[in-house]
Structures are given as C-alpha cells and as structure tokens.
Amino acid sequence: MVVGNAALIAAPFYRATLIAQAAFYGLAWFGARAEGSGTLLKIVRLTTLFSSMNAARLVGFYRWLTGRQRGAWARTARG
Fold it and tell me: How many other β-carbons are positioned within 10 Å of the β-carbon of residue 5?
C-alpha cells in the first residue's frame, strides 16, 4: 500500500493516505519504544501490535512461498 500511495502522490487523496500511513507507522514505532503503562500508551500500543502482527504474517508467507518453512503440526499424546 505504501508503494502504491507513493506512486500516486500527485493526487490529493493518495497524498493524504500516505501521510496517514506514515503517522500510523510512526505511532507504532513510538509505542514500541515508549515506557510506561498509561491508558493512552496502551491504546498507542495497539498500533504496534497491528504492525508487528502484519510483519510476522508477511515473513511467514514469504517463508512458505520460498519453501523455507512448512506448516506441519505434531500431534501431542493424549492421556
């Protein structure tokens, strides 16, 4: 999405969405580095959670696509 918005930056709508994306990722970066446990900081850390979960999904998809990781589960023994 960032690449698409950057390519279409001449249009006002896409410029605004690129700025909003940059603000969101900046907030996620801040939430990952901020210390404390206030209510506002907990809300900010939701952006960090969202960004890191999507990054992990992207890495997992890339590993699956390139054959570096298989989604195999081992069944546990039942009592």
Answer: 19
